[in-house]
Amino acid sequence: MPLTINGTDHDFIGDPRTTLLDYLRDECGLTGTKKGCDHGQCGACTVLVNGQRINSCLTLAVMHEDDQVTTIEGLGTASNLHPLQAAFVRHDGYQCGYCTPGQICSAKAMIDEAANGWPSFVTADLFEPVKLTTDEIRERMSGNLCRCGAYSNIVDAVTEILETKR
Amino acid sequence: MRAFTYSRAAAVAHACQQTRDGARLIAGGTNLLDLMKLEIEVPEVVIDINRLDLANIAQSGAGLRIGSLVTNSACAAHPRVRGHYPVLSRAILAGATFQLRNKATTGGNLCQRTRCYYFYNRDQACNKRDPGSGCSALEGANRIHAILGASEDCIATYPGDMAVALAALNADVEVTAPDGSVRSIPVREFHRLPGDTPDRDNVLEPGDVITAVTLPAPVGGTQIYRKVRDRASYAFALVSIACVLKMDEGRIASAALAFGGLAHKPWHDSDMDELLTGKAPSDTLFEAVADLLLDGACSYGQNDFKIGMTRRVLKAVLREATGMQA
Question: Which of residues 52-91 of A touch B (CB under 8 A)?
């Protein structure tokens, strides 16, 4: 069953119980995506599928025929960091780093969602262009937990990227 | 997770036949796979319906037809939903996270199961999970549990937000049966009270497949979704209220209220809507509406607070919706 991961063609063959998360980590060797709770509560497993962020622990690999999956490895490399990765380093947006790949994939998608005008729970006017204020970032990133509590630095890192874009 | 066979539905009729024969349908999978990992759901056959052509939102008469595979994200962001049914956008955005809403679907969300701790814990008694085993919540940790319409067999709540707004909007659930017939079930009648069969969450029969949710013509007015929960984001409702209310020359021209977090179903009582209609807003009126809702309420210890909280939140919502000082 074909699918594309970080621009590379893959062919999933295996037990249908395999989650996308386990497939990425165990079969594809893409261990950047992390398994935290394995129940969709922590966001450590966040990846992009066809550009949208999802919890890769709560979907089966076999459901993703012909989909385009992007993991943290597809966003940047050690020698060529994604701007969000560089911002997380500058702002110390982590301590242990376990939630960081999910945080960065999530932040990438959040910026795209806001650009598309998707409102959130804290958006005052459902039709105004979305401005990613601190309150908006906190609400929109609430699916990514950080047990070290680096939240304020994560908000700073994301905010810096948004200001660079403006 | 137990082993299962996986295949894809080629057509709605195929999905109907498979589910009639005991298969579980998977759409977003965010609730089903969670429960399968815990072996609370143990289907032998899983049918993936994601490739069916049910992910469109389209005008339907004066209303709107939302395909059952429309994701929560797409529904909340759709311009017509935002513009004409803002209480629905607000309710969806009050639930879960962007990651989950990008997968969760309209049909699947209606079918999501309770988050009762004892339903989720296979070491505990739960008549919903294991009929006849008892209800550990009755004398257990029942802070999140029902105060309306519960039974001695089950005090679980329906956990969703979207369906609460749909109940206020008086939407219909479009269901296709194995014989190909299509029927509409008012969303207010879709979920059921537990009675002595709490294992049944809703009125779907074996072989039924939800194909759409249909919204009636826009009613305008003030639309509010107020959700009270333990965290500011990403938590289920302790109490939530969807309110669609129109004023005319200082009087309430029409009102529709629905409640989440209180019962085994989104709670709607047309007597409350009628009591408000035609009246000038006042605290006395709002107290009477709250009495109508809560006079039969029953709490179980840890959720005693819900009765008073519901009264206060209801009054605040009605004050806001009618333009009184909040």
Answer: 52-55, 58-60, 62-63
